[in-house]
Amino acid sequence: MPTKTIIFNSIIIAALFLAACSDYDRENFRMEVGKKYALKRWPDSAYIDTLDKFFKKEPIKQSQKQKAEITMSMNNNAMDMLIKKASAIEKSIPKKNVSEKGISEKNVPKETQEPFPDKFVNALNKLLENPNSRELGKKYNVKSGETLDGLLVRVYGQQAKKLPRYTSELMVKQLNPSVDFSALSEGQTVLLPIIN
Prior knowledge:
The chain is mainly alpha-helical. The chain has a domain at 77-193: Membrane-bound Lytic Murein Transglycosylase D, Chain A. The protein is 43% helix and 5% strand. The termini are far apart.
């Protein structure tokens, strides 16, 4: 008899425990992008492997705040349109009588004046075809806190500001695939074309 009572009591306690747990409302929790969370315990390797497999199969939707990576091939018509647009914008900007070198632009024939964005793109295309050529390209060391735009201005002068940022960044990334231009570090080398 006492064993039947013990079994009956344990069944009643288990039923009461399950009933108490079933009324528990779990707090709705959503993780936010960019927010740091403290781990209550370190995840095991099996859990991490599961997450890695899941994220490789499932594309993650980027929020509108995040920067989207865009890749374009050099033979694309869209790239040609961007280059033509950049040169048309440069031609519409009024020029000074004296260039940076001190030579009067009135004395130089119009056919020989090639806009800087065109010179840059042409030199970059030649360097992309032969990246090991020392005649076409030179490696520059990044200074502390310098961005790609700052590096281009330091190397090519103020005329580098005429380059469309997304086009120049895309093309220089193709030339330097191992360099992360969003986080340049001091002393890192970047290969850039030599413009004549």
